[in-house]
Amino acid sequence: MPGAADNAMNKPGKDIEKRERIVNRIARELRDGFYVNLGIGMPTLIANHVPAGMEVILQSENGMLGIGPYPAEGEEDCDLINAGKETVSEMAGTSYFSSADSFAMIRGGHVDLSVLGAMEVDEKGNLANWMIPGKMVKGMGGAMDLVAGARRVVVAMEHTTREGAPKILKTCTLPLTGVKVVDTIVTEMAYIRVTDRGLVLEEVASGLTAEDVQRATGATLVVAENLKVMES
Amino acid sequence: MNKVVASADEAIRDVGDGSIIMLGGFGLCGIPENLIRALVRKGSKNLTTMSNNAGVDGFGVGLLLAAGQIRRHVGTYVGENKLLESMVLAGKIQLDLVPQGTFSERIRAAGAGIPAFFTPTGVGTMVADGKETREFDGRMYVMERALHADFAFVKAWKGDRMGNLVYRKTARNFNPMMATAAKVTIAEVEHLVEAGELDADSIHTPSVYVKRIFQGELFEKRIEKRTLRKAG
Questions:
Q1: Which tens digits make up the pLDDT trace of B47-89?
Q2: Which of A174, A61, A197, A191 is nearest to A126 (CA)?
Q3: Pick from A152, A170, A149: which is nearest to A30 by CA?
Q4: Which of B76, B89, B226 is nearest residue A141 as measured by Cβ atoms?
Q5: Which of A29, A61, A202, A203 is the catalytic position?
Q6: Which is it for strands A168-169 and A120-122: parallel, antiparallel or unpaired?
Q7: Gap between the Cα atoms of B222 and A195, Å rounded
Q8: Cα–Cα distance for residue pair A102/A61, rounded to 1 Å
Q9: pLDDT at position B231, please?
């Protein structure tokens, strides 16, 4: 999907590099025939990294299956937007439906993968990404439905806050978006799976050790026996 | 039977102070902009509005906010609206935020004669506070109630004088459910046609739900985030 990065990449060079690493790694989770909902911001960039020869159908919760690339200038259509309210285009096989049908599809477990950002994730797979007490609350949009209904939920986020504080915690401190909903966390440092025995560190970024990742994490990580280098 | 009215002003003649009004649209896509402008002209006060978003400053539902006509707003995401933010912080307006799939299903349920339903969305979060929860087949669900309105303002691409409606692309969104959930549904259409001109197999909203219909005078159809692919 050429062009999908143009608008979400207006960030300093270091952040772009971090994001590319996260986005590339999550793209490797895609499988042919997957129906996928990509959240606003960084997750949207995954659309640019669908492996060649693989057919992945993107769902937009405002009522569309089969999101195409951003339109060329002059071809934008005010009746055709994604859930981030950006103009998009159709592809062969696109379908449209109502918001009720869209969320029936999501809650009903028909969407294979939901990728979204987070403020905090904890070792139980609890997710907080919609409100900070004391600040203006903008609303949860479709996030609570997506994490409750998608077959698999992957969090795409930077490993720590801008101030360097961990975002992966023993227990979330912010109001929750969902309880025990996250399956996998992908950051620029690591690939972590949420399991019954806690957070399992399966991959670390090239040049880092498990100890480096643990130091930047607020919960105890279980290091996988066959710990790998994160390919991206 | 004559559902066709001459103008938006005539269509909303009986929208009194304190009315509960659903407005279709996602962002600025598929909003009943002619009815909103007429409602600003009429000046009805103490309204409860139900709409996914609250428009932007100076357009869509934002016009009703600026005119001080809304007492309470029910929606899922209001991040594009600075005026609303200041009104909420000043206690001038009540804002109820609902998960988007729950919002759409509550409206659908109202139109379908279902008073309440159980959903997995929001279990264990603030959204479920004070609500009945129940376990089905080993999973917890929260009970949500149907959402009714006095009026539904919907926007369709085409409509016939019987009230049959066809939406276009992602401008469909919440319009079909809202059309079913109010005592009086008013449709503004871009193209008003004779009965029989729409393909009966392709009607999105059957005529029974629509009480009044008119051809909109002016469709600005503003684009909120114009995103384009790079040339070449």
A1: 999 999 999 999 999 999 999 999 999 999 998 888 998 999 8
A2: A174
A3: A152
A4: B76
A5: A61
A6: parallel
A7: 46
A8: 6
A9: 66
Whether the pLDDT of residue A94 is over 80: the answer is: yes
pTM greater than 0.80 (yes/no): yes
Q: What is the dihedral of CA A187, A191, A193, A198, to 10 degrees?
A: -80
Q: Give the count of Cβ contacts less than 8 A between chain A and B.
A: 186
Q: Is A61 a catalytic residue?
A: yes
Closest by Cα among A82, A35, A124, A109 to B121? A109
B174–A80 C-beta distance less than 8 A: no
Which residue do the tokens 């995103």 mark? B227
Higher pLDDT, B1 or A56: A56
Nearest partner of B225 among A145, A50, A85, judged by Cα: A85
**pLDDT at site A137:** 86
Task: Return all residues near B70 (Cβ < 8 A) that are at least 6 apart.
Answer: B47, B48, B49, B61, B64, B93
How high is the ipTM of this complex?
Answer: 0.96
What one-letter code names the amino acid at B220? E
